[in-house]
Every structure is written in structure tokens, then in C-alpha cells.
Design brief:
This protein has a domain at about 5-145 and about 175-205 and about 270-275: NAD(P)-binding Rossmann-like Domain (Rossmann fold, 3-Layer(aba) Sandwich), CATH 3.40.50.720. The protein is about 40% helix and about 20% strand. It is built from eleven helices and twelve strands. It has an eight-stranded parallel sheet with strand order 3-2-1-4-5-6-10-12, sandwiched between helices. A two-stranded parallel sheet has the order 7-9. Strands 8-11 form a two-stranded parallel ribbon. Strand 4, helix 4 (about 80-100) and strand 5 form a beta-alpha-beta unit. It is globular, with a radius of gyration of 19 Å. The N and C termini lie far apart (about 45 Å).
């Protein structure tokens, strides 16, 4: 029976991947920051390995003896320099993965990660692809714009009938994906037979524009919702209002600018893998799970 170690198991992607692996009969090793965070996964039948992202020895121990590993790094939104924090983390991760001789590694990357500049926060994933590029078996899973980015706007859209959009071409479709589909793909990749360096670009069955999101919310919320562009000069202050530092807000604003300029795109769009979750299915589930006021 194969064993897979997963970082990020307490989040949407890692958690979904872990459940899929457990359902298939595989063993899962939950790599978490504390025993407390691992308790729910222990109850589901997973092993628990405690390791901080900056502890190479603990990570090496967590990765030793597994058949594959899924890794990702935090967002670092609370840091003034998310890139410096990320470089330290990927250096530590790389040391641990090499020392443990993990035979197969999947990591969460992003659409646009092939670009060396002009991508804002996505530059972290470009640097991660470069830093781990010498691993013998590595899949960089480049995901599209998370549908979950809209979850925090549902209540406002329901109340006001307005969907604020940082994407300033309201009719232009972009590549999106639900995190459940990313998790399913992670589990699939870990259990497939492959070797060498791979890029997998992942998006939903269709591409969607901000107007598509608004029209879908109109159906699901049963009230008119209209997408409206949030002016560029309000981007950084908006991110700051969500708790990001100045440095992180600037990185996110540059990322959105990259999407608007069509600089952040898939490298091989014709070869992208399609998930199964469409926008209406995603929002119907999201709205159905929201507590009633």
C-alpha cells in the first residue's frame, strides 16, 4: 500500500487530495504544524507528522519512506516581503525532499508561473518551479484563477446587487478552477506512474468572465447581480482592508494587472487539463453551504 505525505492538508486543496487518497485505500501522512492540527486527520485514519515549513530536519523525517509528496507554501500575506519568506521556505523544502529522496513530488503552482516577471504574487511559484527543477520526478500543477476568490463577495453581491471586479475586461473570459478539482488532480497525479519533469495546467470545463460570474450569481441568488470594475487606484487599499501588508497588497495588485494585460496566461493552453466543476455548480454549492442570516 502506497503512502503519500501532504503539506497543506488543513486547506482546501490538500484536504481534498487527502480525502481522495484515503478513499482509494492509500495511506496519508499529514504534515502539519502542530499535533492539534493533525487530530482531525488522525481520526480519519491518516498518520500525523509535525513539521514547520522552516524546519528541514522535521520535514525530511516527514517525507522519509513515502511514495510521493504534495507540497505547497503559505501565502505570506502578513509579511512585508512575501518573496523573501517564500525563498526561505522553498530552500528548506528542497533540502528536505532531496535528503529524503522522495520518488515523486507534486506541487501547487499557478497559471503564468512560466513568466519571470510582471506577475506579482505569482512570481513566488515561478521561483519555486526553478528551485525544485532538479528533482528527478516533479509535477508543477499550474492552476487557473481560483473560483474561491469570489466567495467573500457573495454576501455583498446579495445585499447590493453589485459584484466588484478587479478584472477590468468584464466580458473577457479567463481560466478559472475550483479548489476541489485541484485536490482531485493532486490525488490522481500522486497515484499515476510517471517520472521526470512535468507541467500540468488545470482549468474548469469552460472559461468565465466577470459578467459570467455575475450572471451565475443572479441565477443562484435569485436576484439581479451586475459586475462593476473596481478602479485601479482602489486595488491596493482594498487588499489592505482585507488584512494584507503594503508589500503583499502591491504584489497582488501587480498580479491582477498581469491578468488584465493578458500577460498571465497558460503556457500551453491547448494542452490544459479540464476539471469537472463549472461556475453554476460551484456557486450553487457555495451558497447552499452559507449559513442563513
Amino acid at each position: 500500500m502506497s503512502t503519500y505525505a501532504l503539506i497543506g492538508i488543513t486547506g482546501n486543496v490538500g484536504g481534498r487530495a487527502a480525502l481522495k487518497l484515503l478513499e482509494s485505500g492509500a495511506r496519508v501522512r499529514a504534515v502539519v504544524r502542530s499535533e492539534e492540527k493533525g487530530t482531525p486527520w488522525k481520526a480519519k485514519g491518516a498518520e500525523v507528522a509535525v513539521a514547520e515549513i522552516d524546519d528541514a530536519m522535521a520535514l525530511q523525517k516527514a517525507f522519509t519512506g513515502v511514495d510521493g509528496a504534495f507540497v505547497m507554501t503559505p501565502t505570506w500575506f502578513a509579511s512585508e516581503d512575501m518573496f523573501a519568506e517564500n525563498r526561505k521556505a522553498i530552500s528548506t523544502l528542497g533540502k528536505a525532499l532531496r535528503a529524503a529522496a522522495v520518488p515523486k513530488v507534486v506541487f501547487l503552482s499557478s497559471i503564468g508561473a512560466h513568466r519571470p516577471h510582471g506577475t506579482g504574487a505569482i512570481l513566488k511559484l515561478h521561483e519555486m518551479e526553478q528551485a525544485l527543477g532538479d528533482l528527478s520526478s516533479l509535477t508543477s500543477l499550474r492552476a487557473g484563477w481560483f473560483m474561491e476568490n469570489y466567495l467573500g463577495m457573495i454576501a455583498y453581491a446579495k445585499e447590493s446587487g453589485v459584484l466588484p471586479s478587479l478584472l477590468d475586461h468584464l466580458d473577457r473570459p479567463i481560466s478559472m478552477i475550483a479548489t476541489s478539482d485541484i485536490g482531485d488532480q493532486v490525488a490522481r497525479l500522486l497515484q499515476e506512474n510517471w517520472s521526470g519533469q512535468r507541467i500540468v495546467e488545470l482549468e474548469a470545463p469552460e472559461r468565465y468572465s466577470p459578467n459570467d460570474v455575475a450572471s451565475t450569481l443572479t441565477k443562484v441568488l435569485k436576484r439581479p447581480v451586475k459586475a462593476e470594475v473596481l478602479p485601479h487606484e482602489q486595488w491596493e487599499s482594498t487588499y489592505r482592508s482585507w488584512g494584507l501588508t503594503i508589500g503583499s497588497a502591491k504584489a497582488m495588485a501587480e498580479m491582477v494587472d498581469g491578468f488584465n494585460k493578458e500577460w498571465i496566461v497558460f503556457e500551453e493552453p491547448s494542452q490544459s487539463v479540464r476539471g469537472v466543476t463549472g461556475l453554476e455548480k460551484f456557486f450553487a454549492k457555495a451558497v447552499g453551504s452559507c449559513p442563513r442570516p
